[in-house]
Amino acid sequence: MMVDDAHASGVLGRQGRGTVDHFGIHGRVDIQVGTLSKAIGALGGYVCGTRDLIDFLCHRRAPISVFYLASAIRCRDLHCGLRRSRNRTTVDGAIWANTRFWKKELGLLGFNIGGQTTPASETPITPIIIGDGRLTMAFSRELFKEGVLGTGIAFPTVPKVKPVSAPS
Fold first, then answer.
1. Is the bond preceding 127 in cis, omega lying within 30 degrees of 0?
2. pLDDT tens, position by position, 109-164
3. What percent of the chain is predicted at pLDDT more than 70?
4. Contact, 123 vs 6, CB < 8 A?
5. pLDDT at site 17
6. Is the Cα torsion angle 115, 118, 121, 127 positive or negative in sign?
7. DSSP sequence for 120-152
8. pLDDT score recorded for residue 125
9. Across 64-153, where does the E strand assignment appear?
10. pLDDT of res. 88
11. Based on C-alpha coordinates, what's the Rg of the chain?
12. CB of 128 closer than 8 Å to CB of 106
């Protein structure tokens, strides 16, 4: 079994340990992959698996910058330290309260955040679905100019969807 933890690392499970912990499937997953660019706040991703799989990937991947690796380790340490230093219930509660607020407000503004042309997100990762790849990337650039990191993702990384009317 393989688990893609892109939307669960740092969020789901006890102290953000991910999907495997959330569903209690320890020891039943052969490969686990995820991103460090969402809840962890770094760049890159990870693969967990058998020693043979990791050796295979290490010999066939592009070299990784030591700076990416160092930033990922530091972000992980900060993330884990935050969860240990505070009451876990308070941190987890704040994540989900902020998520509910964010999704409600985006919906009130008329943004398609899933549940219309795509399934609704069940994690704090909240898509704003524009429907047109070029417009999505332009929207992402404008957010960045305003100091908001909203990474645009377009086809073929995500399926093409029919555009819905944007908020006025």
1. no
2. 999 998 877 888 888 888 899 888 999 999 999 999 999 888 898 888 887 766 55
3. 87
4. no
5. 82
6. negative
7. PPSSS------S-HHHHHHHHHHHHHTT-----
8. 83
9. none
10. 57
11. 18
12. yes
Tell me the torsion sign for CA atoms 146, 94, 115, 32: positive
**Side-by-side strand order, sheet with 31-35:** 2-4, 31-35, 45-48
- Rounded to whole angstroms, the Cα distance separating 51 from 10 reads 24
Contacts of 99 (CB under 8 A, 6+ apart): 123, 124, 126
Measure the CA–CA gap between 46 and 63, rounded to whole angstroms: 14
Asked whether residue 168 carries a pLDDT value surpassing 70, the answer given is no
5-28 residues labelled b (16+ CB within 10 A) or e (exposed): bbbbbbbbbeebbbbbbbeeeeee
Spatial CB neighbours of 151, under 8 Å, sequence gap ≥ 6 = 37, 140
SS3 72: helix
Which has the higher per-residue pLDDT, 85 or 25? 25
For residues 99 and 125, give the distance between their C-alpha atoms in angstroms, rounded to a whole number: 8
Q: Which amino acid is at 131?
A: G
- Cα–Cα distance between 56 and 35 in angstroms, integer? 20
Could you say which DSSP state residue 123 is in? Answer: S
Q: pTM value?
A: 0.64
pLDDT at position 70 is 83
Our CA angle for 127, 129, 130, nearest 5°, is 145
* SS3 assignment, position 33: strand
